[in-house]
């Protein structure tokens, strides 16, 4: 039913690259082709090669380089009058904005990308851009607004037999079910995503699906060792492909699993590691979530209750500023779990 996964963001002379190519290899090949296109005065090829450069930098966590690269790709595409390439560059910029926690900018860029993709007749970039909009809303906790779009994109991906996009949609829907407390449905969807990704040789998609499965078997079943095994398998892929962001989220999830198991000292170490990784790549959402896990771990290890309350109040403000609409619930659960009454005045001041 599904063909082998492919990477439509690797374009022009880079179409031979695999979805599983190491990001360092992608960056090297993309940079070489970009420089050749610039020397030859071929802006269309420069735009396509620059897209791969932008995406490699983004996934490696090099946000400043990624920002310069997608903008250069857009300028080259505009010079060439290539509307579809302009759409792809905007998609990359919107995805980077979401990664950096700039959700309003992400939505603007991704909507522009979807519109240009439709105008340029590129159904793939249109689909990827709509998927980006859906993911942005999902990350912010606006499930009602984007749930239907996720289902629509899943149906379209299944109809076209596009494995990579099917896997993405399944994982997004699974995450919403998991966060809503429907662990059984979440598990089934993550499991299906992992199976499709394996069959299509989509190692990145499978790594994210394994992370989701680990979360569920930890939270639902209390099976710590199985969860850690799944995360170890996913981590191997992240390291082989140099997926910096995915690796940091893997480490944060490992912290979650260890925390649930009462292994607080080990959890603290993983949260500290993830926090450093997110800070290095300027990813505020991952940083804030790692801080929350670390605060809870330190509280369990005997940290002063007033210090913990102050940290949670500051985190509430940070999460609110980032634009995570379920921030209040996350922090409230932490207060309840730790038995630390919320300092209403401090929380309001932070917000």
TrEMBL record:
Q: Which InterPro entries match?
A: TPR-like_helical_dom_sf, TPR_2, TPR_rpt
Q: Which domain of life is it from?
A: Bacteria
Keywords of the record: Repeat, TPR repeat
Signal peptide as annotated in the record: none
Q: One short Pfam family name for this protein?
A: TPR_12
Entries under SMART domains matching the protein: TPR (SM00028)
User: What is the protein's name according to its record?
Assistant: Tetratricopeptide repeat protein
Question: What organism does this protein naturally occur in?
Answer: Streptomyces dubilierae
């Amino acid at each position: 039913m599904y063909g082998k996964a492919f990477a439509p963001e690797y374009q022009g002379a880079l179409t031979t690259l695999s979805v599983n190519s190491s990001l360092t290899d992608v960056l090297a090949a993309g940079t070489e082709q970009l420089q050749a296109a610039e020397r030859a005065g071929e802006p269309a090829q420069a735009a396509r090669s620059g897209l791969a450069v932008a995406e490699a930098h983004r996934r490696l966590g090099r946000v400043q380089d990624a920002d310069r690269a997608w903008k250069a790709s857009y300028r080259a595409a505009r010079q060439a009058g290539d509307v579809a390439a302009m759409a792809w560059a905007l998609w990359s910029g919107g995805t980077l904005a979401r990664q950096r926690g700039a959700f309003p900018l992400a939505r603007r860029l991704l909507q522009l990308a979807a519109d240009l993709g439709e105008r340029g007749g590129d159904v793939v970039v249109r689909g990827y851009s709509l998927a980006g909009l859906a993911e942005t809303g999902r990350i912010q906790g606006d499930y009602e607004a984007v749930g239907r779009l996720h289902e629509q994109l899943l149906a379209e991906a299944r109809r076209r037999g596009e494995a990579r996009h099917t896997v993405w949609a399944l994982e997004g829907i699974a995450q919403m079910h998991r966060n809503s407390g429907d662990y059984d449905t979440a598990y089934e969807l993550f499991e299906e995503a992992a199976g499709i990704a394996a069959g299509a040789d989509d190692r990145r998609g499978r790594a994210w699906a394994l992370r989701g499965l680990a979360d569920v078997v930890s939270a639902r079943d209390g099976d710590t060792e199985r969860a850690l095994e799944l995360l170890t398998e996913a981590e191997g892929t992240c390291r082989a492909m140099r997926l910096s962001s995915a690796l940091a989220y893997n480490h944060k999830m490992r912290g979650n699993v260890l925390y649930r198991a009462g292994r607080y000292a080990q959890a603290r170490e993983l949260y500290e590691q993830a926090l450093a990784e997110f800070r290095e790549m300027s990813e505020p959402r991952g940083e804030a979530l790692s801080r929350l896990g670390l605060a809870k771990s330190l509280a369990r290890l005997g940290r002063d209750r007033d210090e913990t309350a102050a940290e949670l109040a500051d985190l509430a403000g940070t999460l609110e500023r980032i634009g995570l609409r379920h921030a209040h619930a996350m922090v409230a659960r932490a207060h309840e779990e730790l038995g630390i009454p919320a300092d209403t005045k401090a929380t309001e001041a932070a917000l």
